[in-house]
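Why this split exists: single-chain examples teach little about how molecules sit against one another. For that reason, every record in the complexes split bundles all components of an assembly together and asks for one structure covering all of them. Below is a record exactly as it appears in the raw files.
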Amino acid sequence: MTLFDLAFRSMRKNIKHYYLYFFALIFSVVLYFVFATLQHDPAVLAQNEQMSTAFLAAGILLIFIAGIFVVYANSIFLKRRSREIGLYQLIGLKKRVVARLLVIENFLLGITALILGIIVGMLVSRVFLLLLMKLIGYDLMIDVSFSMTAVIQTVFVFIGIFMFTTIQMISTVYRNTLLSLFNTEKTGEHPKKPKTRNAAFLAILGIALIVLGYLISDNMLNDLFLFNILAVLASIGVGTYLIFRVTIGWVFYKIRDGKAGHLGLSNSLSLAPLMHRLKGNANSLTIITILSAMTLTMLAGAYSFYYATEHETRSQMPFDFIFEKNETEATELSKEFDEKGISYTHGAIDLLVLFGRMEEGAMPVPSNELYIAIVSDKQLQQAGSDIEAPADGSAIFYSTSSISMFRDVIEMPLTLHLADDEKTTIEIAEYAEGNSINGTMLYSQLVVNESTYEQLKDQFTATGQAEMSRVDGFTITDSADLEAASEIYVQRYNTSGHIDYYSAYQRAIETNGLLIFISGFLGLVFLISTGSILYFKQMTEAEQEKKSYGTLRQLGFSVKDIMRGIIKKQVFVFGLPLVLGLVHAIFAIKVLSSFFQSDIAFAAFVAMAMYTFIYLIFAFLTVGYYRNTVKNAL
Amino acid sequence: MALLKRKSKTTDQISKNTVLYAQNVRKSFGSKGNVQQVLKGIDLRVEEGEFVGIMGASGAGKTTLLNILATIDRATEGTILISGSDISKMKDAAMAAFRRNQLGFIFQDYNLLDTLTVKENILLPVSLGKMRKKLAEAEFRTIADILGIADLADKYPHEISGGQKQRTSAARALINQPSMVFADEPTGALDSKSASSLLGTMADINEKRGVTIMMVTHDPLASSYCSRVVFLKDGNIYTELYKGDKTRQAFFQEILNIQAVLGGESIDAL
């Protein structure tokens, strides 16, 4: 039997342990290949430069994730096989030969995964391209051309990763003694009685740090925004680690101590083994929690952007087209619309532009001075808007400048002083979302009713404290005409620097579509990596505990009884990182949501639900693996 | 009909004191064409309070018999009653419950759970039962005192010696007050001093608490602690020896004599 035969046989024998690793490997190759294909696809390149760059950047990130994942998974599998490696040496194979055996195996496995991955990648990349085009709003039918560059790129990247795993294998063979190879499987820790005072302090500190992080994140919208972000990340990161490293152990110890030996079967199968592996699991559970939180935030954020695109654009640009101080152009545009048979509403809006001053401390911004345009709601309505101003003397405030971050924080109503006049004030009843007039202007807007408007206009034009300006607003009646109308506008005023609603929407959906595509892609890779790593670790634990399950079966515990304890353990192993990750993400998204004009709760919820669903598949796979192990233990 | 008749007959034969009754137990392994009969029709009856040793050469079927009687394995044929329950007709789940409530086990390699302390290991079998915590605690105290491991309650298996581990295993077997305790080579992994100390304790428990014990061993010294020794040869019962009023030394000598006739033990002893 040649070494090659031996390698082949041992692979066939180990396929039970390998298959998930193998699938994960193929999956990594498929995803990377799809990315590489899209990066070089002429259809994508034709869209715009920025898209190809985005794919390149995401591809590099993907290499890192795939690399770390493959190397980590390989180390888990090497540990499981250390006894086998030792056995080869025990029967007299030279280290060199054993190393070569492993390298051949690795090579066979890698090449197969690479070939299969690229084939599958070719089949699915068309689907992904169509998905991308749909997301960014193009309905063209595009053929994916076969990209040799993508193949070569993928092969190079994964050969690089396989080199790492090969080095890893060789060093396992050469750097370990026989004894340590035979004992790796046994290296469980034994829980020590925690030093009560220290442990209690650190345990509570862990919880306190997380709570502190949440508290800061809830009030982080102030001058120290960047500092706050760092503080939140640090306290939540350290807090999470302490939770897994100390708090859990401490709580478990307390519970177990309280049982005074009457632990019961289900705790014996959950609490006790968890306590024995706490140290080894703390790092990976912390990383998985943080990764989950980041992925969830990224996914929820990207999906929110995408989901809110229309709403966001519309709230910035309530009119389909506007002209500033340009009556002639407005008239010409309406003429052309009339010719083309596009029905619309057109109205002129007079702006009373002046300075206003907030009362000290009313808004958390350095300057209380605001540049304001006062408009009448009636004129807005004539141009197609549906804004209605409140009673005489009060106004609705619109501003999409940087203070809009504080929209939910600022207390209403508040008083605004107009011009330098100490006496003339207006009450702001509400800080409304978005703009009242397309946000091509620098000023905030105050919408008042007509009589208030007329009164203020008379007063300030007389004193010369305000300037007058004019905007022509257009609203297209039938949204089906929007595209045609936009084309006319763009052709006429392409160079004027002004943008119409429809073009802005198209641009935003393109960017956000790309964003959701890439983050969805990366999120999936993160999710599958973390899920598989948890699964691999649990698989190893199941093997290590197989003997205990056999004993329990002999003592007369049914598979069902034993599974109850094991499920309890899985609820902890999978559930805690997920729940903590979700809560972290919820707080992060709350911060994120203040950058949106619209409500993103629904979009964030959808993203989180999908993440949780896929994540739980891994938990179910794990429980299935345990059930098989327990069934076959007797 | 014939089956029914036979069943009623067997029930008649069982006296009140019989804990275990086995009739015509057969076990074969392998599939069609290559069937290997390991047990060829064993009849056995164990009375309450007996300490039965099962001896025989390697391959005589001792462990197979123990596993079948202990409901871990199923017989191909035959009837087995323990405390009046017909275990050969039980479903898997019922058998597991029966094992948990009625039987105790001591294994050669202790089979303690590494992640549990001595006390947690011992109390494991009562964890799903109805035994109240107070009662379980009292039972634990008594048994741990008898076995001399009360001081080790909070230690983990890796912190104690082999003999102590086996005592823990024995305590676990006794905690649920079983009808019968099965021991598979309990001294197999122990040095001679720990072995005789453990066997002494087991004999003591058998006598004082009236616990019925069945022990598989290949060690004549170990079986000299029993009240009866059953010898197996090629899947059949070869002979039986009762200790009666004999001293342990005399009984030991008798066992050795039978073993010499049986042969094959020399291979096992290696």
